[in-house]
Amino acid sequence: MNEAQARRLLAARSGDVCEACGAAQAVNAHHRQNRSQGGAWSPENLLHLCGSGTTGCHGQITTRVAWARTLGWSVPSWSEPAEVPALLARHGLSYLTPD
Predict the structure, then answer these.
(1) pLDDT tens-place string over residues 55-75
(2) Which of 20, 38, 39, 91 could pair with 31 as two cysteines, CB 3.0-4.6 Å apart?
(3) Per residue in 14-23, pLDDT tens?
(4) pLDDT(99) > 80
(5) Is 80 left (phi over 0), alpha (psi -120 to 50) or beta?
(6) Are 61 and 53 in contact (CB under 8 A)?
(7) What is the 3-state secondary structure (H, E, C) of 80-97?
(8) Dihedral pair phi/psi, residue 92, rounded to 5°
(9) Per residue, what are the HEC states of the chain?
(10) Are 18 and 50 in contact (CB under 8 A)?
(11) The predicted structure's pLDDT at residue 98
């Protein structure tokens, strides 16, 4: 899957609402498993979040990695994102899938 396809699916899943807080407009895609660690552009590895890498929910997840991992918002390099559920504001604890 390419980046554009993944972004379209992500926006459809989130309804353009932050998947972490559920209160703000989602403006950025966050890789649960960092791209530098092999994280793919895939719906199971992405969260649609408010803020940037330093602000909003995106900033909190980026800077508070241990906490974010407890919620499935960050995934270590040795894990498969599809096998780690994430707590989504609108859907509760969910396994993220390509569809």
Answers:
(1) 999 999 999 999 999 999 999
(2) 39
(3) 999 999 999 9
(4) no
(5) beta
(6) no
(7) CHHHCCEEECCCEEECCC
(8) 70, -160
(9) CCHHHHHHHHHHHHCCECCCCCCCECCEEEECCCHHHCCCCCHHHEEEECCCCCCHHHHHHHHCHHHHHHCCCCCCCCCCHHHCCEEECCCEEECCCCC
(10) yes
(11) 82
